[in-house]
């Protein structure tokens, strides 16, 4: 059937062509035209119809040749030879981008399209292979590999740019700098990715430390112990920086309670012990936070501040501590020098006084500034306050020799702090060590004769602590010599001087060798005249010191004489504070008992009781 149909179509096409030829000839023959202008033989040889099956481009005439030449003309060869774009072949078409077409290239580059990964759900409880990556690790590895590849491409691009730049001609060297290195990457993303990963790791550490500190501060006893153990065991893993960045701001909170501060101090102690030398870069910031605790009004705050600095010294070392606190030794701010001196005393308690003696000697004899000498001598004073007893007594002579030149220093503040330091050393070594002060007795005696005001009070304080260390003969002699100046200062208007004089009188009267008749005849008349007045009861510190000194005098001269004199003072001046009178009499009787009073004393005391 198909053969018959094809033959039929051919016959129909052939008959159609013959019909068209016949009609065209008839049409041309019926047209009338001027034979003078147009010859009848002009159109001979023309084709009167276009065959249907003939394709275009088969004419081989001049017109076809000219047309092909015109179409083939484009431009110079130098402009035509343009290399194809990346990923295109010589014909200009883009290379296939299917995975299967790139299979050979992947094999050549040893690429892994989908590496083997560990599935925790299918492995069950078995231990996974350490060399097999998990689904969580695969994106990270892919990102790092891609970054490395881009970095290699960037390096190759920079090498090609540098090579092409060296081959430029002199005319090209006049071009602007902005045209050089176009397409070059400014920086590779690998460091940025690494920084992001490090930041994320640090944030995780900080969050974990915060959770543990919250359990320490507000958790139950079991939670607190567990959190403390974790902070201690993982201290090196966390690092000194993240730990102290979270702990120290909490220690500086103004609303921090005593118990919370104590818990934080325990955390710091354990962390310092575990970190060891890793804490050295953070010594300065820890001191900045901890030193204000050393001058706090609360005794326990001061104790915990010294505790932190002592453990910090053991962890960081003596050289690191000296280097961290050295700039504040000659600071013009007295607050900074004071806290630094207290901190050095805590360091001395950690390492022992002998380890710090060479440093103290150099500082106390400094020629650079009086502030450095002042701070060095104050360190000795704070050491005496902190390490009393045999700890100071073993090194007493060395400490006195280091600071004794300060009694004749050109600066009055240095002389004052030297006298106060000697007083602290004498108090710490009592009742021993008088032989260590032989070299300073003469400068001290000269000082109480020349100075006035605060300097005189400091020198009197030193004399008052040294006299009880003497034997009976020397104590009696120096007491009589210094009492002239003390009685002169009884009438001083300064409350600070009054308290100093009262304390020195108490110390001198308590010394062996001072006779009761001397106290009764030479000291008590002026003592009751200037001190047993109503003004002394207005200040609580004056009130307390007066009561203590009067009780000590009663121990020397007897209870009957003191009670009679106090009763007489109250009888003469009814404005005398009754509480001070009764407190003094009560302490005197409780120490020495109640002897038989004469009738006048009983009458005065009975009248006083009736008035009350």
From TrEMBL:
Kindly give the InterPro entries that the UniProt entry links to this protein.
Answer: ARM-like, ARM-type_fold, HEAT_type_2, SF3b_su1-like
**Listed PROSITE patterns:** HEAT_REPEAT
Lineage, top-rank taxon, reads Eukaryota
Give the span(s) annotated as Disordered. 77-96, 143-187
- Where do the HEAT repeat units fall? 399-437
- Give the protein family: Belongs to the SF3B1 family.
- The reply to whether Ligase figures as a keyword in the UniProt entry is no
Q: Which GO terms describe its biological process?
A: spliceosomal complex assembly
| Keywords assigned | mRNA processing, mRNA splicing, Spliceosome
Q: Give a yes or no for keyword DNA damage in this entry.
A: no
Q: Which GO terms describe its molecular function?
A: mRNA binding
| Entry protein name | Splicing factor 3B subunit 1
- Comp. bias intervals (Low complexity): 155-166
Cellular component GO terms held in the UniProt record: spliceosomal complex
């Amino acid at each position: 059937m198909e053969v018959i149909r094809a033959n039929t179509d051919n016959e129909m096409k052939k008959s159609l062509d013959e019909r068209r030829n016949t009609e065209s000839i008839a049409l041309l023959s019926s047209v009338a035209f001027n034979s003078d202008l147009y010859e009848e033989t002009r159109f001979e040889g023309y084709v009167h119809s276009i065959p249907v099956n003939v394709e275009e481009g088969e004419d081989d005439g001049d017109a076809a040749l000219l047309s092909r030449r015109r179409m083939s003309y484009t431009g110079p060869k130098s402009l035509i030879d343009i290399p194809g774009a990346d990923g295109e072949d010589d014909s200009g078409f883009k290379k296939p981008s299917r995975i299967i077409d790139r299979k050979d290239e992947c094999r050549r580059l040893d690429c892994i399209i989908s590496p083997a990964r560990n599935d925790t759900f299918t492995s069950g409880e078995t231990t996974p292979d350490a060399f097999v990556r998990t689904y969580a690790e695969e994106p990270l590895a892919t990102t790092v590999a891609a970054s490395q590849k881009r970095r290699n491409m960037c390096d190759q691009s920079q090498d090609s740019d540098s090579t092409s730049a060296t081959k430029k001609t002199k005319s090209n060297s006049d071009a602007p700098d902005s045209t050089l290195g176009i397409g070059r990457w400014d920086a590779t993303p690998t460091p940025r990715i690494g920084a992001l990963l490090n930041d994320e790791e640090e944030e995780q550490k900080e969050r974990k430390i915060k959770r543990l500190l919250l359990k320490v501060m507000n958790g139950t006893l079991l939670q607190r112990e567990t959190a403390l153990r974790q902070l201690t065991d993982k201290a090196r893993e966390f690092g000194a920086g993240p730990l102290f960045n979270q702990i120290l701001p909490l220690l500086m909170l103004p609303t921090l309670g005593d118990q919370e501060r104590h818990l934080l101090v325990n955390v710091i102690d354990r962390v310092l012990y575990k970190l060891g030398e890793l804490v050295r870069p953070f010594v300065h910031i820890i001191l900045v936070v901890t030193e204000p605790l050393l001058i706090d009004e609360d005794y326990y705050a001061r104790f915990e501040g010294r505790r932190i600095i002592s453990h910090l010294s053991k962890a960081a070392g003596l050289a690191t501590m000296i280097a961290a606190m050295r700039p504040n030794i000659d600071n013009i701010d007295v607050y900074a020098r004071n806290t630094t001196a207290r901190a050095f005393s805590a360091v001395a308690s950690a390492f022992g006084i002998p380890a710090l003696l060479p440093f103290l000697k150099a500082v106390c004899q400094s020629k650079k500034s009086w502030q450095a000498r002042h701070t060095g001598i104050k360190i000795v004073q704070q050491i005496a306050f902190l390490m009393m007893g045999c700890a100071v007594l073993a090194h007493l002579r060395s400490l006195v020799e280091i600071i004794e030149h300060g009694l004749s220093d050109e600066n009055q503040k240095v002389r004052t702090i030297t006298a106060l330091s000697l007083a602290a050393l004498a108090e710490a070594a009592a009742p021993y060590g008088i032989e260590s002060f032989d070299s300073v007795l003469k400068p001290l005696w000269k000082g109480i004769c020349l100075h006035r005001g605060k300097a005189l009070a400091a020198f009197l304080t030193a004399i008052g602590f040294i006299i009880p260390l003497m034997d009976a003969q020397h104590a009696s002699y120096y007491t009589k010599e210094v009492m002239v100046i003390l009685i002169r200062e009884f009438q001083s208007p300064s409350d600070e001087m009054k308290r100093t004089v009262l304390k020195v009188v108490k110390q001198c009267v308590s010394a062996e060798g001072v006779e009761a008749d001397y106290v009764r005849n030479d000291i008590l008349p002026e003592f009751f005249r200037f001190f047993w007045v109503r003004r002394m009861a207005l200040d609580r510190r004056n009130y307390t010191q007066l009561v203590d000194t009067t009780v000590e005098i009663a121990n020397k001269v007897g209870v009957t004489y003191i009670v009679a004199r106090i009763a007489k003072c109250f009888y003469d001046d009814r404005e005398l504070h009754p509480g001070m009178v009764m407190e003094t009499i009560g302490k005197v009787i409780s120490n020495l008992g109640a002897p038989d009073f004469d009738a006048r004393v009983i009458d005065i005391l009975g009248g006083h009781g009736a008035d009350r």
